[in-house]
Amino acid sequence: MKKKLVTVLLAASMLATMLAGCGSGNGGSGDKKADGSVYMLNFKPETDQAWQDLAATYTEQTGVPVTVVTAADGQYKTQLQSELAKKEAPTIFNIGSTADCAEYDKYIYDLKDSDIYKHLNDKSLALEYDGKIASVANCYECYGIIYNKAILENYCKNYPDAVIKSVDDIKDLDTLEKVATDINTNVDAINEACGTKLLEAFASSGLDDGSSWRFSGHLAGIELYYEFKDAGCDLTAGQDTIEGTYMDNYKRVWDMYTNTSGADKSTLDSGSLNAEAELGMEEAVFYQNGDWEYSAFADGNENGYTVAQDDLSMMPIYFGVDDENEGLAVGTENHWTVNAQADQKDIDATLEFLNWVVTSDEGRDAITNKMGLSAPFDTFTGDYASKNAFAAVASDLASEGKTSVAWSFNATPSVDDWRADFVAALTEYTERDGSWDDVSKTFVDQWSYYWKLSNE
Amino acid sequence: MEKSIRKYFWIFALPTMAAFTIGFIVPFLYGIFLSFCKFTTVTDWSWVGFQNYTRIFVVNGIVDKSFLHSIWYTALFTVVSVLIINLVSCGIAMALTKGIKGTNLFRTVFFLPNLIGGIVLSYVWLMIFNSILQNYSKTIVSSQWSAFWGLVIVVCWQQIGYMMIIYIAGIQNIPPELIEAAKIDGASSWQLIRYVTLPMLMPTITICTFLTLTNGFKLFDQNLALTGGNPGKMSQLLALNIYDTMYGTNGWQGVGQAKAVIFFILVALIALIQNKITTSKEVQD
């Protein structure tokens, strides 16, 4: 009897697993949709909740089902590849750069006649590929050197040997170098004179995978920008070979970052450094990163940082090339692409949804206030203009006549590979006294190597 | 009874076979097919023949050693970890079957690391390693060899407990009268191990070496979380190298797939040979 019971139980559990497999399949194809539906594969993990809420609101108002799935940080490409192969593929997905366009060409719907493209202020924020408007930027971001304005002002006022009179004196790399070196060398005297608790000038420049992109992507982007400008090629699409013309400037900035920081230069790749916290706890004055960091320093943020958000501001990454005219680096890796392989009714529903996002009150509120993004559409005015102080610096500088630096690193061929090689060389130089020539050589050689690979 | 089993066995085998086909055989064959294609997503492919296979070794007209590097790096890692894990776990198992006090406590403690997932475990060890190495101005990814020994330590720490349990079961299965007889015949404790315990333990050794060998070759989580392949790509084991090719290099999904096929053949071959060698040493009763 007992044996029989066991057999029955085993058989039941076996059947259950099989039925469960079929069950989920049925569920997906079971609800037949009369009209189109929207499926968005979201790129930014931090905006997930806001998108879920927005999707629910839209479904409530129009009855159109909207699914939002967010890929885990760093897993976007993995998930996109498997999701696109499914029958119910995403109708909206993110494309980072022109290089991505080549890879996903078959899935790219031409957005030329779409409403979101018409609403886009700055048409250069759309990616063009193969005669199509491949994708439209859904936010623009800027990066530069985030600095603690309050501490710097305090330093100018209360530290007798300060090398500058006011914060506005920092207008070029020379001055920035001087200030950073002075603060880092005399940190104890400054703490005493100003009542601060500084440990260093620049926050640590971690070379682990969680931080190295700031240098292999963003800082390298400045070098690439000046180089592409000289070459006269498209600033964000780049070209097949680079010369490394400004690698000496890169070295100067990099040396400043590492020499005026409290972090041990030989263990920068340990992964235990937290540069954001160093600025947040007012231990450091400078920190290279982007305006997406703004919300991390908000008052009452769960990080528990002591710094006041209003005390922070951003300056360009002075590169010693054209400091006088250089603004913040403005661009984006966030673009909406509509899946051309989806059913026409789904494409229509998707375009309508995106238009609703950028025109309705709910959509604009979510993007500006909940996600904290700066949206490049003409509908974002008044209450919906960006409240990000770093982004405001970008437009202030632009209106002063400075040129915003384009995101030239978007042109990087086989991004992950190229960055890995470059970071390895940079680590060798920084941690183990490798030669700078090797860094430059890797920078230049690997570029054309991977360019050739991805374009053959 | 016998007859009806023969007649109806396929009905009983069907559910499992169906699941196995859907979950394993079909994707496997499709994977082999894809290794001859250029593809972005698995439904969108174009045939390119052996191009993916040549690209593993020749890139841009230059011989590319990264895959070969990860093959021998993985092989070395596997050899070292198989040796350490089996020797140590067998030793602990022998000690813990002697009836010393607190045996159960020791067994539990040694087994515990196995209950922690590979990623979490590696992050914990990453912190331990780096805080120690900091004193010497080094990190775990300072060179491919520090990364190597880091991986060995983590994997050994994780797997020794598991293998120990299997060894304990094996040792307890040895009939006590055999040992008693050997003792009466005047065998020394070394002779006891060499001529009684070890031969009787051969089936267990087969299982344990098989498990550790394939685990070593397939290792991924710990590699990803502990070293991430750094410095450069020097500490990439095979699985991570394939993953990196698949998702890191633009348009190289097919090459990643081709590497995976080679990887499969390699692991299958080695596992078969190992199985053959150790099984031949087993004592038939």
The CATH architecture term of the largest domain in chain A is 3-Layer(aba) Sandwich
Strand content of chain A: 5-15%
CATH topology of the largest domain in chain A: D-Maltodextrin-Binding Protein, domain 2
Please outline the major beta sheet of chain A.
Answer: 5 strands, mixed
Pattern of helices and strands of chain B? HEEHEEHHHHHHHHH
Describe this protein's structure.
By secondary structure, chain A is of the alpha+beta class. Chain A folds into two domains: 35-140 and 332-380, D-Maltodextrin-Binding Protein, domain 2 (3-Layer(aba) Sandwich); 142-331 and 403-454, Periplasmic binding protein-like II (D-Maltodextrin-Binding Protein, domain 2, 3-Layer(aba) Sandwich). Helices cover 45% and strands 12% of the residues of chain A. Chain A is built from 16 helices and eleven strands. Chain A has helices at residues 2-30, 48-62, 76-84, 98-103, 115-119, 149-158, 173-185, 187-194, 213-231, 247-259, 275-280, 344-359, 361-370, 389-399, 415-432, 436-454, and strands spanning 38-42, 66-70, 92-94, 126-129, 132-137, 141-148, 286-290, 312-315, 326-331, 335-338, 403-405. In chain A, strands 6, 7, 8, 9 and 11 form a five-stranded mixed β-sheet that branches. A four-stranded antiparallel β-sheet of chain A has the order 3-10-5-4. In chain A, strand 4 and strand 5 form a beta hairpin. Chain B contains eleven helices and four strands, in the order αββαββααααααααα. Chain B has helices at residues 2-34, 51-57, 66-95, 103-111, 118-133, 144-172, 176-184, 189-218, 221-226, 238-248, 253-280, and strands spanning 37-39, 45-47, 58-59, 62-63. In chain B, strands 1-2 form a two-stranded antiparallel sheet. In chain B, strands 3-4 form a two-stranded antiparallel sheet. In chain B, strand 1 and strand 2 (45-47) form a beta hairpin. In chain B, helix 10 runs antiparallel to helix 11. The mean pLDDT of chain B is 90. The interface between A and B is large, with 43 and 37 residues.
